[in-house]
Each structure stands twice: as C-alpha cells, then as structure tokens.
C-alpha cells in the first residue's frame, strides 16, 4: 500500500480545509439558497461545475506542494467517492418519491442530510485511519467486505424500496418523536398548542442521513484501497459530498438512462478489494515459495485509469443499450 508524506496531515492544513468547508456551507445555506425553491437544471449544473473546479484546483495545489503521488491519490479517491455518491442518488430519489416530498423542500432536505454526512464521515475516517495504522490486518477485512459488496451489488434487483419501507429509522422516529401528519411547506418543526412537533420533512432528513451512513460503510473502505492518508481520504470525500446536492437535480432527470452504472460500481468495488488484497501477497508463505517476494501493488495511475474507464464504459453502454422495457416500448407494434 503506498503511503503519503506525513506533512499532508499537518494541523494547519486540516484547519484551513475545515474553515473553507464551513464558510462554503454557511454561504450556501444563508446566502445562495436562503429561500426554498425548485432548483433549475442550469443552476444545478453551475454548482456542480463550480465544486468540480474547486476539487481540481485542490488537486493541483497538492501536486505543487507534495508531488504527483498525493495528487493522483486525491483524484482517484475523489472520482471513486463521486461515483459511489452518484449511486446514493438513486436511493435518494426513491426516498423522495416514497415520502412524496414537495419539490421546493428537496434542496433543504439534501443540505441537512449532507451536513450530517460530513460530520459522520469525518468520524468514520479518523477512527478508521487510526485502526488501520494500528492493526494493518483490518485492510484485509475491508478488502473482503468490498468484494462481497461488489458481488452483491451485481445481483441486487429492486431491493432499495423494500429497504426504505422496513427502515428501522422510520419506526423509531415515529415512536419517539411527536409528529404532525402532513407537510408544512419547508418547515421541519411546527408549534401547535404550545408543543413543538416534527413534520414529515424531518423524518425524511433522518432517513436520508441514515441511508448515507449505510453507503459510507461501502465508500470509505473503498478509498482505503487508494490511500491511507486521513487528510486525502477526508478531503476527497468531502468534495464529492459537497457537489452531491446539485448533482441530484441534474441526475434526477437522467438516472433511468444510466441503468448500467450500478454494474460499473460493482466492478469498481471488486477491483479495489482485489487491489488491497494482493498488495501483501508476498508475505504469505505459499506465495514466497513460487518466487513472489515483492508487493503486488497496482500503481495509483493504473487504478485511476481503471476507475475512470469502468465508469465511462458503464455510462456509454447505458446510452447504447437502453433498459429492456424502454427498448421494447420503442419498437413499432
């Protein structure tokens, strides 16, 4: 497993990055999206372009400061997390449809969900990094978990909606939190007869946040197959998450077109898992006996090419090979 220079995780860099993220979130919520609205496609596209540009500028800054290896690790981690985050959007769309969330309220729900995601992912990454550096064998467990998840994803069909209906969050929330029965615009809490009550919108936030935590158990182990540096893992994660909200409003109109993306993500998870497993094959006795004494490390450039290539192929193939029902429907009778 390749490592990155220790100074990448310096306190000054952590403080600077965290301050930037906090300032960006405050500007976003209190200035640019102060009022609830249906986000136009052009506006969403502009925000996606902005966040991608900021992420790429950060990659260039890493290259100038620390060299090519950390910058490539950041790019591979960012691309991997962005791809896995796109898969989140499929489930978010199902959640919004299931709860019939008003169009004007979706933006605020996603913002609060992403805010919680940033905090929880930070905890996961810091704890995960500490455990990996203390107990290297944990990487093998993560690798096996990724391969299992990838194989499961390949053969998974139509289980997302069932998972939402049976979500323990819904049952616990409704049991513990007093609620009103209907939406009240974009409000999460309302005061009636002297008591504060949650609206269904707050329940949706809880389900979205819980869902993102579940997805993080897949995406965060995956990025450990690219780098073990906590700052690179966290920054690439956060940049991917920050652009997720705007991307939702673009892909909500296009998701059905990219039906093979899930298969592509499954292949990527399996590839990253295998990459993690073979890195230390040379330490096994039966492997040494056949003359393999050096780590079988896949260069970060090759890994980046595989991730980008699989994503590109799955998107292009989705366009060329439409879903069966769409293909059948387009045939003349």
Textual characterization of the structure:
- The protein is an all-alpha fold and 333 residues long.
- It has one domain.
- It is 70% helix and 2% strand.
- A two-stranded antiparallel ribbon has the order 1-2.
- α2 (41-66) packs across α10 (244-251) and α4 runs antiparallel to α9.
- The longest helix has 31 residues, at 68-98.
- The model is unreliable at 1-7 and 326-333 (pLDDT under 50).
Task: Name a few traits of the molecule.
single chain, mainly alpha, 2 strands, two-stranded antiparallel ribbon, disordered N terminus, globular, 333 residues, disordered C terminus
Described by the principal axes of the CA atoms, the overall outline is globular
Strand order of the largest sheet: 1-2
Report the span from N to C terminus: 57 Å
- Average per-residue pLDDT, rounded, comes to 77
Strand content: under 5%
Radius of gyration: 21 Å
Low-confidence stretches: 1-7, 326-333
Class derived from helix and strand content: mainly alpha
The overall strand count is 2
Number of domains: 1
Q: Spell the H/E element sequence.
A: HHHHHHHEEHHHHHHH
- Compute the number of helices: 14
Name the helicity range.
Answer: over 70%
Largest sheet: 2 strands, antiparallel
